[in-house]
Amino acid sequence: MVNGYPLLTILVFLPLAGALFLIPVWKRPEWLRRLALGAGVVELALAGWLTVRWQAFQQAPGAPAGFLLWEDLPWIEGFGIRYTVGMDGISLLMVILTAFITVIALAVSWRGIRERVALHYLLILVMESGIMGVFLSLDLILFYLFWEVMLVPMFLLIGIWGHGRRIYSAVKFFLYTMFGSLLMLLAIIGVYLVHGSETGSYTFALPALVNTRIAPDLAGWLFAAFLLAFAIKVPLFPLHTWLPDAHTDAPTAGSVLLAGLLLKTGAYGIIRFGYPLFPQAAASFAPLLTVLAVVGIIYGSWVAYAQTDMKRLVAYSSVGHMGFVALGIAAWTPVSLSGSVLQMVNHGVTTGALFALVGMLDERAETREIAAFGGLWGKIPLFSAFFLLFSMASAGLPGLNNFAGEFIILAGSFRVSPLAVVLAFIGIILPLVYTVRLVQQLLFVTERQPLALADISLREGGVLAVLALAAIYLGVHPAPVLDLLKVPVGLLTGTP
Question: Could you report the per-residue pLDDT of 58-94, keeping only the tens digit for each?
Fold first, then answer.
């Protein structure tokens, strides 16, 4: 609470309230768009205010160390379930990213969605509430509830407004994530029962459960269930196969939200729940996680090079970029973990921007095939300039955001896994190869077929300009973000 106001609860449920306000204007698309965007902007403003005021907050009474905002209320007392939400520096960054990317998704849907407009915007806002809940929950049942809430809107976004094999991709996404979710639920119940039998207190509260003594063999199985659920969402190789299909067939807003936010919930789950609940089991699984991360980095980049569909190329590039996040988590050092959280933010900005750009081009040309384009630099220069900027950011150009995150991850992981870092360096070279090839074929080679393309509009330019400023700022001056991470990362790694 801050001055008696439940700010975290407001953050979680404000988008849901905004979704309900869409119902009275269900058949008026222009009003729907304005109201939905207004709700997103208010949420972003609140997240921004918390960021500005963060250093003025003190440790919340009764909260775990590092949590400056904390709300704890009874809910289903008979089963030890409470409504417990809290915010530390890691949660704060994820909240800012969620609010920011949601506004971008709402803005890029402005003209692209013409059917079932109200339902489309309602689902985006409901998804934002679910994702906010995931990043703020400190009760495992509450976390699981929000985890499920955020999945259903994405399933519907792909299935209703998607392209190509949208039903196949939506069902594949749902089955993969639901399988992992059910295993995680079983593991949550397992931890609950072990803690209750050991202490006589049955609770799902994370601060209490992290001190549970679990037999090593059982801890290994429970951690494996958590890791599988989160690895599907990251996604780690070889559990990634749902991602290219979902991205390829999703609408533009769906791809922006999927890459910018949903993938981050998997990495966040490993950081917030997996490692703290099962530290010994996590240490024994670290070599496997490292191997899968390195394979994903190289494989994702290699397969991205072979793609002819721009959206599919960006999707496979996400597998490689999120591999770096997993590598930093596996090393579990203060530097590598800080780099992983920073890279989660960076990837959300850069890949979200690339999916938005591909969507804009698809709206104009009605194709995403690389071979259909050429000479865009002379035809639509503003679009081309933004595309070049974000492509170079994705490739890890120094001075832009991805470089900062990947460099910190590699530096922090080197002492723990030097061979893995050397192999992962290939994952820095390969994106440069396929990115330069993509930029050349789209922007600079001779036009392959005549396409009547309009340059970006004022609305599109505003969206891309904000993303560009974020990419440049995070690349040139990531220190404020890293400062937010010092305390929570130190507490997680045992090096305060």
Answer: 777 788 888 989 999 999 888 989 999 999 999 999 9
| CA 86 – CA 205 distance, rounded (Å) | 12
Q: How far is CA 233 from CA 170, 172, 268, in A?
A: 14, 13, 10
What's phi and psi for 290, nearest 5 deg?
-65, -45
Read off the pLDDT of each residue in 134-163 and give the average, rounded to a whole number.
93
Phi/psi zone of residue 63: left (φ > 0), alpha (ψ -120 to 50 degrees), beta? beta
Give CA separation, 147 vs 74, 266, 299, 344, 458, in Å: 20, 10, 28, 18, 36
| Three-class secondary structure of residue 99 per DSSP | helix
212-229 exposure pattern, b = at least 16 Cβ within 10 A, e = fewer: bebeeeebbebbbbbbbb
Structure token digits, residue 122: 């309602």
Which value, in Å, is the radius of gyration of the alpha carbons in the chain?
A: 22
Convert the pLDDT of each residue in 102-143 to its tens digit. Answer: 999 999 888 777 788 888 899 999 999 999 999 999 999 999
Contact call for residues 69 and 8 (beta carbons, < 8 A): yes
Identity (one letter) of the amino acid at 417? S
In angstroms, what CA-CA distances link 21 with 11, 120, 289? 16, 14, 44
How many residues are listed for the chain in this entry?
496
Question: Average pLDDT, stretch 217-230?
Answer: 94
Dihedral angle at the C-alpha atoms of 289, 295, 297, 301, nearest 10 degrees? -160
Residue 164 and residue 250: Cα distance in Å, rounded? 9
